[in-house]
Amino acid sequence: TFNPVKLIAPKSVLTPQFIDQLALETSTVTNLLRQNDSYRGWVPTVPIRMIHHKSDELVPYGNSQAAFNAFSTAGAKNHIVRGPGVELVEETASINISTDPVKTVHFGSAFPELSNGWKWLDSFKN
């Protein structure tokens, strides 16, 4: 079943009123989320690698984990070299790109994630 309250992590960024709306099956918020639910109920037929830093403050790692779990539940296999499947890779590197506190791990890990993603895509070349 579609349960956005269980899916959203961390809940600390949401107001109690918003969480209450998510719990209502008929709320506008829940209906919009259901319409935009893009990863449950289908199995990828091409290789997918999700790379995410666990310390990302802007996009919780739990979001990627929820997507990975949904793909797996729907029947997706773990990725094999040059084959279909899904994998979730934890990025551990982050580059300190600024003394500005707004520049977070989210931005600092983007460069290593892009590099790792590019190397992965290159692995498909003949």
List keywords for this structure.
mainly alpha, 2 domains, 6 helices, 40% helix, 10% strand
Task: Please outline what is shown here.
The protein is mainly alpha-helical and 126 residues long. The protein folds into 2 domains: 37 residues, no CATH class; 86 residues, no CATH class.
What does this structure look like?
The structure is a single chain. This protein is mainly α. It is built from 6 helices and 2 strands, in the order αααβαβαα. The protein is flat and about 50 Å long. The protein has 2 domains: 1-37, no CATH class; 41-126, no CATH class. The chain has a two-stranded parallel sheet. The protein has helices spanning 4-7, 16-23, 28-35, 61-73, 105-108, 110-122; strands at residues 48-53, 86-91. The longest helix has 13 residues, at 61-73.
